[in-house]
Specification:
about 270 residues, 3-stranded mixed beta sheet, 9 helices, about 20% strand, elongated
Length: about 270
């Protein structure tokens, strides 16, 4: 993907709907999400997989993602155990569970797994946790306390994808695998989401639609915007910037902005503060 979009729950849903309207099958999006998530786990956590992987699956499409992850890990020879917080209730989640079932063991984690996947709730959730999900989140927290790496699918369950509000009982993740776009709440509650990894799920042009979603710039964007620097350039020829603000004791934003200006290539930055 060329652009990295930061979306609310509604903006993320609109992208899914646009991709489906353009011809993408909804199950294909789910399949891409789960398959690419499994690839990250196999690549980044290979050393921990000999102990098996425990997955928590909800009843919606986030649970469907978890079933696909489980099936793909099992195909790669990983011992997988799935704990379902409820039966699948969407057509895509039911299909994913049916396809994955022959390769899986169902039941609560054995306690020895070093990788535990949170696929209980996705971007559509807000508010309090239902009792079954709350109980599953308690198990996630126990696994984390026991040294397991918690990997959340799209958002940690119980974290509001739009506001970043964290429901009581939500388990913090070490890494969050965001599907298609980075969810705004994940950035707002970065400490709860851990490392953020953006995965392509086949949204194509729908990911870059212009609807007011935040656009996260990257180094390549800045490189295109900034003029080239001559080999003999000095600070007086590489751009000057003055950043004014910061009441007494409130200079933090000015300091961050000044550091960012220098990191972006400004030759001389003046921080003018109280």
């Amino acid at each position: 993907m060329n652009a990295r979009r930061v979306t609310t729950a509604a903006e993320a849903a609109a992208r899914d709907e646009a991709a489906i309207a353009a011809g993408a099958a909804s199950f294909d999006l789910l399949l891409h999400a789960g398959t690419n998530a499994a690839a990250v786990i196999l690549r980044d956590y290979a050393a921990q997989l000999s102990h098996g992987v425990a997955l928590f699956a909800g009843s919606g499409n986030n649970g469907g993602d978890a079933y696909v992850v489980a099936a793909q890990l099992a195909r790669a020879g990983v011992t997988v155990r799935v704990h379902a917080a409820g039966p699948p209730r969407t057509p895509d989640a039911r299909r994913a569970m049916q396809l994955a079932a022959p390769a899986l063991v169902f039941g609560p984690p054995g306690g020895h797994e070093r990788v535990v996947v949170d696929g209980l709730l996705g971007t559509g959730h807000c508010g309090l946790l239902r009792e079954a999900v709350l109980a599953a989140c308690r198990r996630l927290s126990l696994a984390r306390d026991g040294g397991a790496t918690i990997i959340a699918l799209d958002v940690p369950s119980g974290l509001d994808a739009t506001t970043g509000e964290i429901a009581d009982g939500s388990a913090a993740a070490h890494v969050t695998l965001c599907f298609g776009t980075i969810k705004r709440g994940v950035l707002l509650a970065r400490g709860h989401a851990g490392r953020i990894v953006l995965l392509d799920i086949g949204l194509a042009g729908a990911a870059d639609r212009d609807d007011g979603a935040w656009h996260m710039a990257n180094a390549a964007d800045f490189a295109r915007w900034l003029p080239p620097m001559a080999w003999n350039a000095h600070k007086g020829r590489r751009g000057r910037i003055a950043i004014v603000g910061g009441h007494e004791g409130m200079a933090g934003a000015v300091i961050l902005a000044t550091r960012a200006a220098l990191a972006a290539g400004a030759g001389l930055a003046h921080a003018i503060v109280d």
